[in-house]
Amino acid sequence: MAYWQRAGYRARQRVGDREAITHFRKGLDVLQTLPHTRERIRQEVDMLGELWVVLLNTQGLIAEAEPLLTRARLLCEPLGDTP
Question: How far apart are CA 45 and CA 79, in angstroms?
Fold first, then answer.
């Protein structure tokens, strides 16, 4: 999953946002298969944030953005890191 996240970052810098979206989504899929640890939660929140930014850049404010932010907030609550 870290590889997908790095691929997403690199795609944003070199190739473009559409490829980055694919990489971030694949990374999020892989994260769902891992145990629910603090580190995994933080990685998912980071990746959700990156995906949100790319979607915002490419598609503007879309209906898909709200569930991403809601998921990130819910993941942060048990960590005591909701802001």
Answer: 11
pLDDT tens digits, residue range 8-64?
767 766 667 888 888 889 999 999 999 989 899 889 988 998 888 888 877 776 767
Q: How many CA atoms lie within 13 A of 15 on its CB side?
A: 12
Angstrom distance (rounded) from CA 28 to CA 22: 10
**Direct distance between the N- and C-terminal alpha carbons of the chain, in angstroms, rounded to an integer:** 24
With tokens 């944030």, the residue in question is 49
Domain parsing of the chain, residue ranges:
2-79
